[in-house]
Design goal:
The structure is a single chain. The strands form 2 sheets. Strands 1, 2, 3, 8, 9 and 10 form a 6-stranded mixed sheet that branches. The protein is globular and about 75 Å long. The chain has 16 helices and 10 strands. It is of the alpha/beta class and 404 residues long. Bound molecules: iron/sulfur cluster. Iron/sulfur cluster binds next to loops.
Length: 404
C-alpha cells in the first residue's frame, strides 16, 4: 500500500498493521508523520492541555549484576564507587520533593544481590508511614524479575508483597527493545527477556496497578525491531488496558561499553510520531526532553506527545551516559505555553492536579539536577546490617559491620 493510502487510513482513525507501519516509518516525509500524529493527539486531547508531573528520579543503588552494555550508571559488586542509599537519605529526598510541590518518587536501581525483598518492603512501609499520601512509582520489570530470582518467589507473589508494602505503580524502564535478538546483543537478555518484561507488566495490571511503557531506541536494533516493540506493547495494552503512557528515548552512548552514535532529533520525532500512530490504544505519550533537550521536547508536542514528563529534581542514569538537560517547573511551563498549549500538573495516573505550583505559591527554582549522592560520599547506611547479603563481598562487609 502506498504512503498516501496508509496516511488516509490513519487519518480516518483506522488501525494499521506492521507492514503499513514499516512503510510509513521508512518512507513517509517527517512533516506527514508529524501531521498524522498531531491529529491523533488532538482527537484524544482536544482541550490542548499538556501535562507534566513533579517528581524525583531516585536511584537507590548503582550496584548491579546485570551489566548491560549500554549502561554507564552501574558499578559491579564490591566496587569502591558502589552505593546504597539509606532510608534517611531517601526521606530527605522526599522532603525536598514535597517542598517543590512533588508527590511521588520514581524509584529505580541496579540489581543489587545484597538487597533482599525485605529491604524494599521495609523501605516502602517506612515511606508510607511517614508520608501517607506520597506515591511510589517504583521498580521496573527487570528489577521485579531480579527480586523474584533472589527471593525464589514467583513474580505475582513479589508484586503482591511490594503492593502490600506500598508500591503504587511500576515504571516501564528496562524495556530497551522488546526483541530478544537485540536484548542478547545489549547483554540485557539475562536480566529479563522480552516475554519476562511483558509478563511482569501483565501481572502488575492484573493486580490493579497502572504502569508506563518505554523504549530505548538507537543502539543496535533495526527499524523493524523498533516497530515489533511497539506492536508487542499494543497487543498487551489490548489485553489489559493497564498502560498509562508510552515514553521513547534515544540511546546515550557516552561512557558505555557499547559506544556508538546518538540518534538525531529528526529520528526521535519520526519515532515518536510513529509510536503515536501505532499505539492507538495508549492515551498518553511523553516528550523526552531529558535526552533531547527542551527545544526538541517542545517540538514533540507537534509530533504526538501530550505530556512533558517529569520536572526532574534528580537524575543519575542518563547523566552518566552524557546527557545533562535540566528544566525546572518554570521552564517546562514556558516551553508548553510557547508551543500554544495549556500546562497542567498531573499525578501518576494522569489525573489533573491543577495549575503550575509556582503560580500558587513560592517554590525554590532549580537550575541543576541533583545526584543520588554527593561525590566522594561512600558511607554505608546503618540499617543495611539488618538484611541478608547474597554476594561474598556483601556478606563479609555486613558481618564486619555487625562485629564492629
Ligand atoms: S541498565 Fe539497569 S540493569 Fe542494566 S546495568 Fe544499568 S543499572 Fe543494571
Amino acid at each position: 500500500m502506498s504512503v498516501k493510502a496508509i496516511a488516509a487510513r490513519v487519518a480516518a482513525g483506522e488501525r494499521i498493521g506492521p507492514e503499513e507501519a514499516r512503510e510509513l516509518y521508512l518512507a513517509a516525509p517527517t512533516h506527514l508523520l508529524g501531521r498524522l500524529a498531531d491529529d491523533i493527539r488532538a482527537r484524544r486531547h482536544p482541550e490542548r492541555i499538556v501535562t507534566y508531573i513533579i517528581d524525583r528520579n531516585v536511584n537507590y543503588t548503582n550496584v548491579c549484576v546485570a551489566r548491560c552494555s549500554f549502561c554507564a550508571f552501574y558499578r559491579p559488586v564490591g566496587s569502591a564507587e558502589g552505593y546504597v542509599l539509606g532510608f534517611d537519605e531517601i526521606f530527605r529526598k522526599i522532603d525536598e520533593t514535597i517542598e517543590v510541590g512533588g508527590g511521588q518518587l520514581l524509584l529505580q536501581g541496579g540489581h543489587n544481590p545484597d538487597l533482599p525483598l525485605e529491604w524494599y518492603e521495609d523501605l516502602f512501609r517506612a515511606v508510607k508511614q511517614r508520608y501517607p499520601g506520597f506515591r511510589l512509582h517504583a521498580l521496573s520489570p527487570p528489577e521485579v524479575v531480579h527480586l523474584s530470582r533472589l527471593s525464589r518467589l514467583p513474580v505475582p507473589e513479589v508484586l503482591r508483597r511490594l503492593i502490600a508494602a506500598g508500591l503504587d505503580s511500576v515504571p516501564g524502564g528496562g524495556a530497551e527493545i522488546l526483541v530478544d535478538r537485540v536484548r542478547k546483543l545489549l547483554n540485557c537478555y539475562n536480566k529479563a527477556t522480552a516475554d519476562e518484561w511483558l509478563d511482569v507488566m501483565r501481572h502488575a495490571h492484573r493486580a490493579g496497578l497502572r504502569t508506563t511503557a518505554t523504549m530505548m531506541y538507537g543502539s543496535v536494533e533495526t527499524p523493524e525491531e523498533r516497530l515489533e516493540h511497539l506492536f508487542r506493547l499494543r497487543d498487551l495494552q489490548d489485553e489489559t488496558g493497564g498502560f498509562t503512557a508510552f515514553i521513547a528515548w534515544s540511546y546515550q552512548p557516552e561512557h558505555t561499553e557499547l559506544q556508538g552514535e546518538e540518534a538525531t532529533g529528526v529520528e526521535y520525532l519520526r519515532t515518536l510520531s510513529t509510536a503515536r500512530i501505532v499505539l492507538d490504544n495508549f492515551r498518553n505519550l511523553q516528550a523526552s526532553w531529558v535526552t533531547q533537550g527542551g527545544r526538541v521536547g517542545q517540538v514533540s508536542l507537534a509530533f504526538g506527545a501530550n505530556d512533558m514528563g517529569s520536572v526532574m529534581i534528580e537524575e543519575n542514569v542518563v547523566r552518566a551516559a552524557g546527557a545533562s538537560y535540566c528544566m525546572d517547573e518554570v521552564e517546562i511551563v514556558a516551553n508548553i505555553e510557547d508551543a500554544g498549549f495549556v500546562p497542567k500538573r498531573r499525578n501518576m495516573h494522569y489525573e489533573i492536579l491543577g495549575d503550575p505550583i509556582f503560580r500558587e505559591r513560592q517554590v525554590p527554582r532549580r537550575f541543576g539536577l541533583e545526584v543520588a549522592r554527593a561525590e566522594g560520599d561512600t558511607s554505608t547506611p546503618a540499617e543495611l546490617v539488618n538484611y541478608a547479603a547474597r554476594s561474598t563481598a556483601g556478606r563479609r562487609a555486613r558481618s564486619e559491620a555487625r562485629g564492629a
